[in-house]
Amino acid sequence: MPPIIEVKGLTKYYGEHTAVQDLTFSIDKGEVIGFLGANGAGKSTTLKILGCVLLPTTGDVVVDGIDIARDPHAVRRRIGFLPDQPPLYPEMTVGRFLTFAARLRGVPSGDAAARVAEAEEKTATRAVHDEPIASLSHGYRQRVGVAQALVHRPKLLILDEPTSGLDPRQIVEMRETIRALRGEHTVLLSSHILSEISQTCDRLLIIDQGQIVDQGSEEDIARRLRNGAAVSIDVDVAGAPESALTVLSALPGVVRATVAKQTGGVTSLRVDTSADIRAQIARALVMGGIDLMRIDRGTGRLEAIFLQLTEHKDLPQ
Amino acid sequence: MNATLLITQRELGTYLRSMTGYVIAAILLLVDGLLFNIFAIGGDDKLSATVLAQFFFYTSGLTMIASVFISMRLVAEERQTGTLVLLTSSPVKDGQIVVGKFLSGFLFLAGVLVLTIFMPLLIRVNGKISLGHLAAGYLGLLLLGAAAMAIGTLGSALARTQVLAAIFSGCMVTAMVLCWMLVRVTERPFNDVFASLAIHGKHFIPFQQGTIHLRDVVYYLMVVIVSLFTAVRVMEARRWR
């Protein structure tokens, strides 16, 4: 099956400034791809090019077999684009706005109402159908932004920072909305929030200073970097974690072991490892006479990957 | 309904749902009414045709000013608020966006101009005016308004903010008005060139006096076409920016 997006040597200059340089990647149909990079890394520029809002300086971008430079009109019919700031007309009601967006994307007037209802269903915005957009909360506005992107049933959905500015509950809801789109649409999702990418996407494209620095699943990238995993452990050492740290440091495969938190007698440790050695860690701690309360895959693996790939950058949120 | 008409319909709705449109309409009607009472009707006795010509003269100036203010938001506001992406990422040509927006501004202006009809009707109460004169004058106002609106659309496409758009458009329209004044202080062939370029004067005075010349109609249509064509090119160029 041919990829839905094929990018070769994509470069974009803003005057003297190079926004993206020589990007090459492809995305298969039905995938949910995370486009990860720090602020200013070139994510939004790349997504605007894929969304046919901007044209590349050089390079080839083919969407569903169509070159965006040759027939951007045909490409735009196949994509739904949510920019970092949802493009909403505050004076319109949600229903009118979505109908306008659907008609603009070529949905026949007879089908528009059904498509709007479908988009509202998928994004849980049916309840605000008759509300003016100006009166909506930030979370609802973001959802309406997603609804306008998918109202014409595009093959490819491009979502730039869809959870930007949302509170934790709204982030969870948005994540569920995006997960529900898997399969029906190919989704390209950008974010600088690592946990969001980790929990939503099948594959990552990591961009830094306008260049793709790595791509693949989280596991693949971690394996390539020999940065196996981080392991999170709770041990009961009565406030004296040195014995546990000693046991862990002596284990082959442990890169670093540090105390993350101490609450009463329970100490939380973070262990950076070169591979997934949770079983060996558990055995060593028990053999060392240390009460193991919990052992888990650390949540910091993606952070570690990101830091390693973009060493000169600050860790994003 | 095609994309151009969809955009026109939405934009027109924005004028009618927001205060801006009503404020511009109210100011135009108020100032036009005052000028009509003070200068056109007031003073010495005049022929009805002269009063009507003066009404069209004052209304033409206000039409140009209103066009600049109506058009300033067309593209610049959407760029400012980030909603332009909705249009530029949709399967809509830049030409359809520009023409749709221009048409909305023009139709709104036309609606406001229709509301000024009560002033010529007041002349008719106490005098006699020809319907031909009335029709020619309003055709002139509509053509002048269309030309100024197209220039305004270009200004709005060029500018990042509405204020800048108003300044750009105001400067362009003023420069084209000043061309008529330059006619008086320059020799041939320059005065002929300035007269041909002037948005008012040579091209509007015949309408004001009830005469329609094909050359004046063509002039105004050319201003519309050239301005909108340039606005489309500006929009396209921004994708390469």
Structural write-up:
The complex is a heterodimer of chains A (317) and B (241). With 317 residues, chain A is of the alpha/beta class. Chain A has helices spanning 43-50, 72-78, 94-104, 109-123, 138-150, 168-181, 194-200, 218-224, 242-249, 278-287, 301-309; strands at 5-14, 17-27, 32-36, 58-63, 66-67, 79-82, 156-160, 186-191, 203-208, 211-216, 229-236, 254-263, 266-273, 291-297. Helices cover 34% and strands 30% of the residues of chain A. Chain A is globular and about 70 Å long. The model of chain A is unreliable at 313-317 (pLDDT under 50). Chain B has 241 residues and is an all-alpha fold. The longest helix of chain B has 28 residues, at 131-158. The interface between A and B is medium-sized, with 28 and 24 residues.
Largest sheet of chain A at a glance? 6 strands, mixed
SSE pattern of chain A: EEEHEEHEHHHEHEHEEHEHEEHEH
Question: What is the count of DSSP helices of chain B, taking H or I runs of 4+ residues?
Answer: 12
- Which class of secondary structure composition applies to the elements of chain A? alpha/beta
Uncertain segments of chain A of ≥5 residues (pLDDT<50)?
A: 313-317
Query: What is the helix fraction of residues of chain B, given as a range?
Result: over 70%
**What is the rounded distance between the termini of chain A?**
36 Å
Measured by DSSP, the beta-strand proportion of chain B falls in under 5%
Rg of chain A to the nearest angstrom? 23 Å
* Greatest interface: A-B, 28 and 24 residues
Note poorly predicted spans of chain B. Answer: none
Run of helices and strands of chain B? HHHHHHHHHHHH
Q: What about the largest sheet of chain B?
A: none
Overall outline of chain B:
globular
Rounded radius of gyration of chain B (Å): 19 Å
Helix % of chain A is 25-40%
Give the N-terminus to C-terminus distance of chain B in angstroms: 31 Å
Q: What is the number of helices of chain A?
A: 11
Kindly state the number of beta strands of chain A.
14
* Order of strands, widest sheet of chain A: 6-7-8-3-9-10
Mean pLDDT of chain A: 86
